[in-house]
């Protein structure tokens, strides 16, 4: 079985872009870059990331994916996922990283559901990346770990609500009140909110009613290797 580095060298990875849609303006705010693979050894992103962690190749993989993402989307803001293991490797802070060549805003997306064992180092790396123009997005708010202090300390520009808070959401539910309260809290902390995993019209209406700023999910658009131009005013 080939390693992650061998698959990188064989150029068998590519990026699928999923829009983060401004729910007020009804237009694309940014695209999230999601890894996909042609390699049979890694049929889905989870297997790929797990193998990269085991092989201590997460830093090299992250750098490669950032390059692909920036090359394929020069016209829009980008959300780029950063795995916690990347903070212990030097790739992210190298001056020639693709983050520094993108002409639009870049949001480094840090998962909130994985506690960082080396938090201080993470914080210093993110502070360095901010000096280069990068912004921070905290992912998965509402998933298992859910440490709100994490959001206070990192001061992210964007917070993404976990799919568990969006699934089957309706305006009349108690969960809707919780989502609205989280949006209000994040707004007071100077962070805008993305609702992830929107799959139904009812969920879309509920997150809009709760004051969520941005939406993402299959209802709006599935990940696509191409940047698909859509008239969002006719979608919702």
Q: What's the architecture, going by CATH?
A: Alpha-Beta Barrel
Please give the number of β-strands: 8
* Distance separating the two termini: 46 Å
Lateral strand order in the biggest sheet: 1-2-3-4-5-6-7-8
Domain count: the total is: 1
Query: Which band does the percent of strand residues land in?
Result: 15-25%
- The portion of residues assigned to helices is 25-40%
Full CATH superfamily name: EAL domain
Q: Flag low-confidence runs.
A: none
Number of alpha- plus pi-helical segments: 8
Q: C-alpha Rg, in Å?
A: 18 Å
Average pLDDT level:
91
Give the CA-based shape: globular
What is the C-level CATH assignment? Answer: Alpha Beta
Computed structural class: alpha/beta
Summarize the helix and strand pattern as letters.
HEEHHEEHEHEHHEHE
What does this protein look like?
The protein has 236 residues and is an alpha/beta fold. It has one domain: TIM Barrel (Alpha-Beta Barrel). The protein contains 8 helices and 8 strands, in the order αββααββαβαβααβαβ. Strand 1 and strand 2 (27-37) form a beta hairpin. The longest helix has 15 residues, at 58-72. The protein is globular and about 50 Å long.
How would you summarize this macromolecular structure in one to three sentences?
The chain has 236 residues and is of the alpha/beta class.
């Amino acid at each position: 079985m080939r390693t992650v580095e061998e698959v990188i060298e064989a150029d068998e990875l590519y990026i699928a872009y999923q829009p983060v849609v401004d729910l007020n303006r009804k237009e694309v705010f940014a695209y999230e870059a999601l890894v996909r693979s042609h390699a049979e050894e890694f049929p889905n992103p989870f297997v790929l990331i797990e193998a990269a962690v085991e092989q201590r190749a997460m830093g090299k993989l992250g750098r490669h994916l950032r390059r692909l993402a920036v090359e394929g989307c020069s016209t829009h803001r980008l959300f780029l996922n950063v795995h916690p293991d990347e903070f212990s490797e030097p790739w992210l802070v190298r001056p020639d990283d693709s983050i520094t060549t993108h002409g639009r805003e870049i949001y480094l997306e840090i998962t909130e559901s994985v506690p960082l064992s080396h938090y201080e180092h993470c914080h210093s790396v993110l502070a360095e990346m901010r000096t280069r123009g990068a912004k921070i997005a905290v992912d998965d708010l509402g998933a298992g770990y859910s440490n709100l202090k994490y959001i206070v300390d990192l001061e992210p520009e964007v917070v993404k609500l976990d799919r568990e808070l969006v699934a089957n959401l309706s305006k009349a539910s108690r969960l809707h009140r919780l989502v609205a309260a989280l949006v209000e809290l994040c707004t007071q902390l100077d962070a805008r909110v993305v609702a992830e995993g929107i799959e139904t019209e009812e969920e879309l209406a509920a997150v809009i009613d709760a004051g969520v700023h941005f939406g993402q999910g299959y209802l709006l658009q599935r990940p696509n290797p191409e940047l698909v131009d859509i008239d969002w005013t006719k979608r919702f």
